[in-house]
Amino acid sequence: MDKRNSRRSKVEIVDNAVGNIFKKYDENQDDYMNLNEFTKMIDDLNLHPKLRMDPKELKRIFEMMDIDRDGKVSKEELINALLVISSRSH
């Protein structure tokens, strides 16, 4: 598989995962994740101990993902963040 196909399938996988995340955690169904919804996701996935995140660090990460600085994370912003994380892990 060439890099373009590999990248495309990674994007499709991440896009599908983000769709499922938003179905579960976007409580007000506005197609954005606010800090409370994001924190609930991190809590449910039990990522605090693994990532050693306190509330201040969690807010910092959320703000880094919020590219347009509107106080919420869109599906596209979350997809981009996950793709960056994924590319760094290889």
Assess the beta-strand content as a share of residues.
Answer: under 5%
Global structural class:
mainly alpha
The CATH class assignment is Mainly Alpha
CATH topology: Recoverin, domain 1
Structural descriptors:
90 residues, mainly alpha, Recoverin, domain 1, two-stranded antiparallel sheet
Summed up:
The chain is mainly alpha-helical. It has helices at residues 3-25, 35-44, 47-51, 55-65, 75-88; strands spanning 32-33, 73-74. It has a single domain, classed as Orthogonal Bundle (Recoverin, domain 1), CATH 1.10.238.10.
Description:
The protein is mainly alpha-helical and 90 residues long. The chain has one domain: Recoverin, domain 1 (Orthogonal Bundle). Helices cover 70% and strands 4% of the residues. The chain has helices at residues 3-25, 35-44, 47-51, 55-65, 75-88; strands spanning 32-33, 73-74. The protein has a two-stranded antiparallel ribbon. The longest helix has 23 residues, at 3-25.
List the helices and strands and how they pair.
Elements: H1 3-25, E1 32-33, H2 35-44, H3 47-51, H4 55-65, E2 73-74, H5 75-88
Antiparallel strand pairs: 1-2
